[in-house]
């Protein structure tokens, strides 16, 4: 059977492990969410539509069980679709195509660091988040020995525990008792964004 995970915040090693799970490993597929930075705003809209189509085709034709949306390819020439936009777009596309229950979505992103950012990703479609830059910072804290008695492993554990506690607090305020009920619920007020962008 498929291995269960104990947290919606995934370490890098747990992402790697997904590719080795029997019965699923060939159906775990990364989708790059970056695009040519020189294309500007018009390029962003095109990139989102392209991602939506790639996601649909990957689940429908390649029978993907896990889609990992990744912004690891961001560099001076490649801009990233904002991960919240990418996640929401892929989620809605799969819902409309009747495919959402066939796969999970993981956001592999350097953007998400704090509780609110991770809560938004979960609320708009991600099943789990790998905040790899935040984890890299925790690793650096541990390796620098700035915090007495805290090694890199413990620093990452402390970070994940803090995020989980924050997520429970947010869910509790909304009267939601399980992460399953919170994921994809979209219970957020959108302030300051155009309707076209939200759509």
Compute the gyration radius: what is it?
Answer: 17 Å
Secondary structure tally: strands? 6
Main sheet characteristics: 4 strands, parallel
- Beta-strand content: 5-15%
Number of helix segments?
8
- The first-to-last residue Cα distance is 37 Å
Mean pLDDT: 91
Shape: globular
Low-pLDDT windows of residues: none
- Order of strands in the sheet with the most strands? 1-3-5-6
Give the SSE string.
HEEHEEHEHEHHHH
Helix proportion: 40-55%
Short description:
This protein is an alpha/beta fold and 199 residues long.
Can you describe what's shown?
The model has no long low-confidence stretch (mean pLDDT 91). A four-stranded parallel beta sheet has the order 1-3-5-6, sandwiched between helices. It has a two-stranded antiparallel ribbon with strand order 2-4. Helices cover 48% and strands 12% of the residues. It is an alpha/beta fold. The protein is built from eight helices and six strands, in the order αββαββαβαβαααα. Helix 5 (132-144) crosses helix 6. The longest helix has 22 residues, at 40-61.
